[in-house]
Amino acid sequence: MSFDLVLFGGTGDLAWRKIMPALFQAFRHGTLPEGGRIIGIARDDLSDDQYRELIRSRFVDVDLSKRPSPEEFQRFAGLLHFLRLDLSQPQDYRRLADMLRERHAEVVVMYLATAPDLFATVVKQLAAAGLNRPNTRLVLEKPLGHDLASNREINDTVRSVLDERQIFRIDHYLGKPAVQNLFAMRFGNALFEPVWRREHVSHVQITIAEDLGVEKRGAFYDKTGALRDMVQNHALQLLCALAMEPPISAHADAIRDEKLKVLRSLKRWTPETLDQHVVRGQYGPGTVGGQPVKGYREEAGVAPDSRTETFVALRAEIASWRWAGVPFYIRTGKRLAGREAEIVVSYREAPHAIFTAPPGSANRLVINLQPRDGLELHLLAQGQENRRNGQVLAPVHLDLDFDKRFGSERVGAYERLLLDVIAGRLNLFVRSDEQEAAWRWVEPIIEHWRNDDRGPRPYAAGTWGPSAASAMIARDGFCWSEEC
Ligand code: NAP
């Protein structure tokens, strides 16, 4: 299948850190359809060869195992082209139309890797230049708006020129192998379904922890914060994957319909739950990996009196027959004590204990998303006999390391998503109504914080966030996975 992939923002950070390495991996694995062109777009005046050289030089920062050899890059570079185009200038789009007309590729992917305030302009100008054809696929990166109204505005503009089936909204967490494994585990095995419900599950924890700070993105982050950057999209998508009902088929809309139902079933916030079930924090100076690090307010691009949250912990509930009363805790933050993303499904204690079990050792299923991709099932087995307590159980766990089992050459998130766009598979992309439902749910939190003078709670960099997050979960009689 011939394709043209037009990369708006072809010289930007996202292009060289994520998109180009992913395209190269697909090329190396032989999964990128042959006969494609990758057309980088920016305002620089570069020839094709200068663009290729720029991309080649950027690969130096990519993981060694994912870096092309000189011969590999030479072959890959044959796909790369550059077009100087100012996205704010309507007449410039005609040159893109001319370039695409040169060969009438079967699929034309327009990937918007530019600042979101350009999205509406680009989409309107593509339509004005007649580039919204049935074979056009549009890829949108987060953030799609900063609230429900701005999200709707972008979605309305895009849908006025393209069909929903042509719109690929990226949430790269959905492209992670571990998330696909979650779908495979839930809907490919009969074992878990009967115990995937309130009668057996006591609570669920979703943690996306980063040990990094805001790096060079202080100015962007200060306007965004952890709730918009991580919770509204990635964390809620993980919650949907975990809590959704089995879809009737693997068709994209069958899956997205079920995810939407979860978002619509999230219990609405009340003044009491906003106060007690949401904790926001902001990191101060501390130590990470043995090195002293700055506090958030000292970071470049961040206001010295910033009230932006770098940490959120919250308790959600899903009002459905399957999940009523089961708390779903979400926690995410920067400059935490580790870099890990995991989902922990905790089961209830055995109803009648004839053996002695160590406290807090109920069965748990841990889905590791980062840094490694795996599954752990925590069980109790026979431990040492003890004269006073009789038989004492001991914790053991089954540990499935998918990287080991399937090899480290597995398809990465961006690689998978890009191949899906070219193939027209929408399963792992977010529909506009899902996005809107997620914004509708987080907006009361934003509003509550806006009117709350207390601001975020401080925490030292290199810790697990403010103690209020531990107090929140402890009120239900539980603890975060690293605390138990
Ligand atoms: P960036 O480094 O600032 O790159 C922006 C790109 O857009 C550059 O190639 C820039 O080239 C081009 N551009 C800007 N204005 C233009 C114009 N008027 N006409 C033509 N080209 C123009 O930004 P980024 O970090 O790659 O982020 C891009 C998008 O991805 C943003 O929406 C961001 O929120 C999202 N995102 C980024 C990351 C990440 O890790 N970086 C992660 C997730 C999502 P010239 O200025 O030379 O024209």
TrEMBL record:
Pathway: Carbohydrate degradation; pentose phosphate pathway; D-ribulose 5-phosphate from D-glucose 6-phosphate (oxidative stage): step 1/3
Glucose-6-phosphate dehydrogenase NAD-binding domain: residues covered: 6-181
Residues that bind NADP(+): R43, D86, L87, K142
One function term, GO molecular function aspect: NADP binding
Domain Glucose-6-phosphate dehydrogenase C-terminal: residue ranges: 184-480
Enzymatic reactions: D-glucose 6-phosphate + NADP(+) = 6-phospho-D-glucono-1,5-lactone + NADPH + H(+)
Pfam families, per the entry: G6PD_C, G6PD_N
BP terms from Gene Ontology: glucose metabolic process; pentose-phosphate shunt, oxidative branch
Superkingdom per UniProt: Bacteria
Keywords of this entry: Carbohydrate metabolism, Glucose metabolism, NADP, Oxidoreductase
Binding locations of substrate: H172, K176, E210, D229, K334
Transmembrane annotation, as ranges: none
Active site, per annotation: H234
First-tier enzyme category under EC: oxidoreductase
Enzyme Commission (EC) number: 1.1.1.49
One cellular component (GO) term of this entry: cytosol
Function: Catalyzes the oxidation of glucose 6-phosphate to 6-phosphogluconolactone.
Protein name according to UniProt: Glucose-6-phosphate 1-dehydrogenase
Organism encoding this protein: Ramlibacter monticola
